[in-house]
Amino acid sequence: MKLKIYALLALFTATIYSAQQKKTEKVKFNQELATSLGADQYGMKAYTIVMLTTGSTKIDDKAKMSELMKGHMSNIGKLADEGKIVVAGPFLEQNKENYRGMFIFNTKSKEEAEQWVKTDPAVQAGVFSYEIFPWYGSAALPLYLKHHEEIAKENP
């Protein structure tokens, strides 16, 4: 019995020690990955953020609005599949700026981001307007998209 307890304690101690070692190990720099993602020496790169705002058009027809939102979501999926959108999502509460949602586009070109946001049916209809800002963030940001489908049970 004592032998079993000592063996379990030894195993437990070794497991904790191993976990601590892995936690403190420095991740090895991966030049190939950094280059493929367009990372600079800090692992960062330029993106463009588009803040969707409340547009000038108000649509009371629920069927029409539903159709526009389906097109909006479909367009986001298309742009994500093409590697153009890195992040997209709505804000969960109203704010004084009337920001409704945001896109982070995988480009440093404001002109290119504007071309892409104009493909959105809700933007075309005037339901959403937008503001465009340059942004600097982790070059690894696009990698989360490949795992998103693994954790989402449903698509909106």
UniProtKB/TrEMBL annotation:
<protein>
    <recommendedName>
        <fullName>YCII-related domain-containing protein</fullName>
    </recommendedName>
</protein>
<feature type="domain" description="YCII-related">
    <location>
        <begin position="63"/>
        <end position="135"/>
    </location>
</feature>
<feature type="signal peptide">
    <location>
        <begin position="1"/>
        <end position="19"/>
    </location>
</feature>
<keyword id="KW-0732">Signal</keyword>
<comment type="similarity">
    <text>Belongs to the YciI family.</text>
</comment>
<dbReference type="InterPro" id="IPR011008">
    <property type="entry name" value="Dimeric_a/b-barrel"/>
</dbReference>
<dbReference type="Pfam" id="PF03795">
    <property type="entry name" value="YCII"/>
</dbReference>
<dbReference type="InterPro" id="IPR005545">
    <property type="entry name" value="YCII"/>
</dbReference>
